[in-house]
Amino acid sequence: MQAFLVSENETGFSGAWNHVSEPELLDGHVRIQLEYSSLNYKDALSYAGNKGVTRKFPHVPGIDAAGVVVSSQSDFFSKGDEVLVTGYDLGMNTFGGFADLVAVPENWIIKRPIGFSALDAMILGTAGLTAGLCVDKLLHNDIKPDQGSILVSGASGGVGSIACKLLSKLGFNITAVQRDNTKQGFLESLGVTDFISMDELLAGDGKPLLKPAFAAAIDVAGGKTLAAILKQIKPSGSVAACGLVDNLALDTTVLPFILRGINLLGVDSVEIPLSQKQAVWNKFAEDWKIDAQYQLIEREQLKDYLEALLKGEAKGRYVLKLK
Ligand SMILES: NC(=O)c1ccc[n+]([C@@H]2O[C@H](COP(=O)([O-])OP(=O)(O)OC[C@H]3O[C@@H](n4cnc5c(N)ncnc54)[C@H](OP(=O)(O)O)[C@@H]3O)[C@@H](O)[C@H]2O)c1
Description:
This protein has 9 helices and 15 strands. By secondary structure, it is of the alpha/beta class. Pfam families: ADH_N (PF08240), ADH_zinc_N (PF00107).
């Protein structure tokens, strides 16, 4: 089969489409012929040789995969089943979705909801699942549209763009953190109505609390971005934190928590039970159906787009066409 193999050499890491052996079909595993994969920040890190994501090279990245079962050693899946896989070890240390085929354990696999195509699944991918989990957590913490605007960092990226589309569909007012204003039109097309520049967000750097301006937030950045967000959430508000594109460190005080009752909600889309993933996928196939912004890319364009993700230049979602 063909796969995008990342190898380590004297000068660093490089990736190219290569012929590799088909994955072994172990007991309890399922082999899937892929129609689409998608690009996530984590794939870019794996492509760049980040050992926190992928320990062993050569490696095939791709944390998302959607297609049809071609052979099965599982009692739960049969040839022809329409499926999708996101997270767990796929694309990290298990060969991932940038390939014609993957072979994965049965307990990583979601049967796609009826009418939900492989393309629909990969337009959302891990980024969409994560955005859905963030919104779900905010809703479970009683955040409602009349309480004020929801602040979203990295709003133009994969997670952020789906979060904005979904929040907008659910009737929320959205404020995007802007690092510059080059993506303003794109952000408006996602339903963003208000903007705060990164400089403005970070302006009260030395202060433990700032004027409460937002009902809740979804943060993909961590670091100083998340620290600044926590200071500006209204009392009893919530922040769903899922990423680290700014920094994995978090330098804050306890004041937002003990004086304003702010909830910091951690979001993991990778290792959670399959049933929790299925619940969010079902919502996206029904009540949460959104018209997400995406770009379809061909195999030979993959490298360029992974490089763009590494530079923080993502705009919406990128779907890799495999079939
Ligand atoms: N917890 C989980 O299960 C989970 C799942 C998926 C992703 N993630 C994490 O979530 C983050 C976003 O993933 P993604 O796939 O959406 O990535 P992405 O498509 O690359 O988008 C990230 C966006 O963040 C903004 N950004 C870039 N550099 C920044 C910086 N230094 N400070 C603040 N903002 C910056 C940019 O948007 P603007 O230009 O609009 O600012 C960029 O488009 C990553 O850290 C990823 O690892 C976590």
